[in-house]
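hey so u asked for the seq, here:
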Amino acid sequence: MGLQTPAAAVPEPPKLCGLCPRLVAFRDANRQMEPTWFNGAVPSFGEESARLLIVGLAPGLKGANRTGRPFTGDYAGELLYGTLLEFGLASGRYEARTDDGLALIDCMITNAVRCVPPENKPTPAEIATCCAYLKARIAALPNLVAILALGRIAHDSTLAALGCRKAHFPFGHGTRHTLPTGVALFDSFHCSRYNTNTRKLTPEMFRAVFAAIKDMLSACGPALKAPAGRGRGLRRARA
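ran it, structure tokens below
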């Protein structure tokens, strides 16, 4: 059975998205083993008034796939949310659960692939299929001025979603690209435990990327405030 394509360009897939058979089978197997986990396409987190979109790879098996919020429940979230709090892009406390009261400020977090893949390795076809959701997610952010890609797959998916050629915008940690749309694309190595343990990415390197992003956002003027009561996640389509 081949992969399908989204019927309509919507920013958020249904929780039980059925487009990728391998991911559906893996999700179903996880649900049998861990029925209390989220086990679905993880929705984006943040406000649609955001000027910054952070794009990760895919939900971690025991992280976002368990909790239902991007980068929540594993080491990558500790570094990412800790850095967002440090730079004023989040408020509250990060306690690795969805009811910890954490809220994002002027940013949104999503993933290039919304469902957890086996061994954290989505196939090229799965990445391409889910890119339709990333394209719609980007299009639904009217104030977007910057995107942070965490890793090469997130970088390449962002370029594909925006119709840009990869050869014109090579991935490189700490690199800033100005895309034809006018949006700035910032690159960083993924904040995974492996990358930090091997020192491929250090907290200092990660903070330097956010310092550059924060400088750009500050130069663009004050952020637009979101309506009261929002900022802690998005409603999703029904499964």
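The mean pLDDT is 92. The radius of gyration is 17 Å.
lmk if thats what u needed
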